[in-house]
Amino acid sequence: MNRTGLLIALVLLAAILVIFGIWPELDLKLAALFYSPDAGGFAYSGLPYAQFARHAAMWIAWAFVAPSILALIVKLIWPNRPLMVKGRTMAFLVITMLMSAGFLTNFTFKSFWDRPRPVSVTEFGGPWQFKAWWDPSGECRRNCSFFSGEGATAFWTYAPAALAPPSLRPAAYAAATVFGLATSGWRMAFGGHFFTDVTIAGLASFLVIWLVHGWIYRWPRTRMTDEGIDRWLTKIAWPGYAWRRRMLSGRNPPKPTLGNRITEQHHD
After folding, report:
1. Nearest to 156 by CA among 97, 217, 69, 95
2. Global pTM?
3. Is the CB of residue 134 less than 8 Å from the CB of residue 52?
4. Range with the lowest mean pLDDT among 55-69, 114-128, 154-168, 237-251?
């Protein structure tokens, strides 16, 4: 998660936005590579093993964040217990997954950007007019094409890769890249997304991960500690825990000793 990675991501994003903004028909030409009129559409979409691979990719991605989600739930229910996962690891993985694969994708672009999917445009036998990535005025009204939620989820694996030991980190980044590209390629092969849908999703995920990683791990003013996050979660979950204990036993549990900061202290 260094500046070189950020620069590469920004250059790629700018190039894709400009090139496919000027020549949007490139999206159609790339989608046409997977379209077969003789097969009646996007042939891969009906293959059982292809559908299994699509779902398996999402299971793999969510498996990386599942322990952190479980640790957060347990901590909020029983704040008197320490986190089962390191505080920064839990916060980083949960926040980036929710932001990239959840909020940024499904609650912003896919909800308000009415771009039809390849399978739905007239060039591939569908009822609707093709729209460039920058044009939200399509006829799709729900669960539209721009941008790809599954692509964003697959490329989110850059987040656990960023936490790999330094000696393994380059290989982890390479594996995340291959995983993201393969998953995105399947979505194109199914006629579910255009090239710009999946690539912009991947780059958006990377930018979210880069920013959150800096916020939690790198930047001196905001850098956090595992213990600080644990204490903060204890503080916010304690009132509900204390209320439940009073209802069940009629007694207040002993108050925990809490710090006031979740960030590291720095001294000149």
Report:
1. 97
2. 0.90
3. no
4. 237-251
- Domain membership of residue 174 (yes or no) is yes
> CB under 8 Å to 107, separation ≥6 — which residues?
none
Instruction: Please list the helix, strand and coil fractions of the chain in percent, rounded to the nearest 5, in that order.
Output: 65, 5, 30
- The token duo for 109 is 């672009």
Number of domains in the chain: 1
Alpha-carbon span 97 to 52, nearest angstrom: 22
Quote the radius of gyration of the chain (alpha carbons, Å): 22
Whether the predicted pLDDT of 108 surpasses 90: no
Q: How much is the pLDDT for 1?
A: 77
CA dist., res. 79 & res. 92, Å (int):
19
* Residue 256 counted as domain residue: no
Q: Which residue has the higher pLDDT, 244 or 159?
A: 159
Domain-located, residue 267: no
**Mean pLDDT within 138-165:** 94
- Reported as a single tens digit per residue, the pLDDT across 181-209 is 999 999 999 999 999 999 999 999 999 99
Q: How far is CA 196 from CA 26, 27, 173, in A?
A: 10, 7, 21
What are the structure tokens assigned to 198, written together?
């999946």
For residue 41, the SS3 value is strand
- What is the number of other CB atoms lying within 10 angstroms of the CB of residue 246? 12
What would the two tokens of residue 175 be? 């594996």
**Quick check: is 264 in a domain?**
no
CA distance 205 to 199: 10
User: Which residues span the domain enclosing 151?
Assistant: 3-248
